[in-house]
Amino acid sequence: MKFYNAYINQYLKLFNKAFIPMSKNGRRHDKRLLDKVDIIRHIPPEVTIWADTGFQGIDKQHPNTQIPKKGTRKRPLSPEQKQENKIISGIRITVEDAIAGIKRLGCMTQILRNRRPFIDDTFLLLSAGLWNFHLRTA
Predict the structure, then answer these.
(1) What is the chain's mean pLDDT, rounded?
(2) Helix, strand or coil, per DSSP, at residue 35
(3) 5 falls in which pLDDT band (50, 70, 90)?
């Protein structure tokens, strides 16, 4: 059985445009990738970051961050926290739709066997550009 490298991409959606930093191979945590790219310091404090739970700890780097709360069996979420999570997930669905749109191009969802340098980033920019074009013309 042959193993292929998994490529991890982070998506940032600003003003109805998808922005994707370079791909990284292997298993890495979302927050660690974000710290390595160091994009948080370029986001102004008045802009709200709507992150998912893979970015725990981002609220220490950016003062205006919204992350869903996690409940446990011993400490279930209150109705107010559940309502806040619904609001956050309602806003985050646009980001998830952008990710799904980028993955419409088959090369983003299938195993990439090409060994050319930076070809994965080229495919990613191509699929993001096609999705942005679709959003502009739709």
Answers:
(1) 77
(2) helix
(3) very low
Would you mind telling me the total number of residues written for the chain in this entry? 138
This prediction's pTM: 0.63
Burial class of residue 52 in the structure, from the number of CB atoms within 10 Å of its CB (0-12 exposed, 13-18 middle, 19+ buried): middle
For the cut 80, the answer to whether the pLDDT of residue 19 exceeds it is: no
Between CA 54 and CA 62 the distance in angstroms is: 15
Token couple for 58 = 């981002």
- Residue 102 CA from chain centroid, whole number: 12
**CA dihedral (59, 81, 69, 87) positive or negative:** negative
Contact present, 37 and 23 (Cβ < 8 Å): no
Distance CA 109, CA 126 (A): 14
Distance CA 86, CA 106 (A): 31
